[in-house]
Amino acid sequence: MEESGNGRAYSDAPTKHQDGITDVKKEEANNQDGKHELHPASQYTDSQSQVHCISCLSKTSCRIVRSRTKVMNILIEKGRPQEVQSVFDSVIEGGHKPSLVTYTTLLAALTIQKRFDSIHSIISQVEENGMEPDSIFFNAVINAFSESGNMQEAMKCFWKMKKSESKPTTSTFNTLIKGYGIAGEPEESQKLLELMSQDENVRPNLRTYNVLVRAWCNKKNTVKAWNVVYKMVASGLQPDVVTYNTIATSYAQNGEASQAEGIILEMQNNKVQPNERTCYIIVGGYCKEGKVREALRFVYRMKDLGLQPNLIVFNSLIKGFIDAVDRDGVNEVLKLMEEFGVGPDVITFSTIMNAWSAAGFMDKCREIFDDMVKARIQPDAHVYSILAKGYVQAGEPEKAEEILNAMIKSGFCPNVVIFTTIINGWCSAGRMEYSIKIFEKMCECGIAPNLKTFETLIWGYGKARQPWKSEEMLQIMEEFNVPPKKTTHLAVAEAWNATGLKKEANRILSAMKNEEMTSKTDREEKIPVGSLEKQFQKPGSIFPNQVQLPNLVISDQKGSGSATKRSRMVLRDTAFSLESSWTATRSLSLSHTCAFGARSPIICQKQSHGQLGMYSQFAHSCPLGVFLN
To answer: What is the pLDDT of residues 106-122, one digit of tens each?
Structure first.
């Protein structure tokens, strides 16, 4: 068999390498013997379709292929399967022929990434290269099909394997049993167990029974799961902690946490020690049922079991007591954490912060945040978003904006939700000029606004009695390739209606209905490809490097198009196409000049981009509070 002495992918006990990638690179650098050189005559031909290596052509073991395959295996072991494809491609591009081991390793990496569409392609390449699949390759293919839920193909491969010289192993059967469990067909998994008993070459092992137990538990059939355990014992095997944890999980997920706790007695009778996962399953089950006090009682019982509750258990308890609005319970858990010497993490703090924020106590929320910083725990994006959302709900958008700036200064990139939340805060306060500044900053950070962002601004301008600016948002949406929905048009119409200009509101509604009719007609007719291309090829609609503001001048090497782009993208004060609309709203706009300033373009015409340094002046520095007061 080709490369039978090499380390194999998808093996039950993969070899561990220390700095193996470096060793392989050294091996390739020292590989100077002539038999691995490319043919001079074909050196510049298409390396992706031609094999040039003499060793690969003569079907002898190629050191380059071996070393690259070893790198692929190491990447999988190190949890970096996404990098395997590029190493495999380098084998092809280098004029080498991948071995069966190489293909097996690639298939294992793609399966981990759930890229199941490549399974048939790899099988075809192995067959086209005249390679005879071995048991490891068969198992890798069966595992890939099983993980994808395609049990029909997995069984086809199984029967093909039985007919070949590579006979199925216990691992093969275990994979198929697992696959039917994933597909929700534990009855078929049970049949495979019976099929194993008819095969002289294989015997069920502990994993076989555990996988079958899980298959039945996934179908919420604990009676059948226990029957498998009884069969296991009858065969001479004893259930382990994995067996019992699987059944306990099923009980906990089905609202039977007390049954899950009862399994501990069964474990003790069979001399199986519960572990931390057992306790987490039971605590999580009680919390899910709202029986947080029962969960806390069980944590105290863990001492008698000789187990130490971990941070996951405590975080579950804290969340349970918060959901039950039991402040004393939260404090009791925090004291218990200190007794066990378990420190809080970012999840602990964010859970408590979220509770204070939802209750409207932002001072307490900020105090917990300061405690977290004092404890030298790095806040994450979720923590910042809790603060920002809380300040907005408390009617303090200026503090929410301070959080945004502190977040950027700390190296976190706020997402569209955080930006839109703060925009909403300023809109609620009627300060549209600040809303637009946040919108600008959002674009400068390269974050594309979405439908919710624009609808928030439309609502804000309507609240500020500036419906013409609400309507102008439709043009900006077009420039950002964000198509308005029915709710968007209704929001614009409502903005006009709120000012008493029902005629303008009806105009928007009529335009919306006409657009709906046009869209319906377009769907029924075939639209030529050429017309679609012309429709979407609009200047200034694509920003390759970062999301830019619609009114910024986009440089153009021809120069002649710049003025055109700018004229399309700048929202001018007098940019109302309908003269009647301008006449109707002129007096309205003048009446609000003192409140919001003179009517200026919606977007400031800045020429500088991405100056994140300006945000540092808003960075917020707060005194540190007492830990979880």
So the answer is: 999 999 999 999 999 99
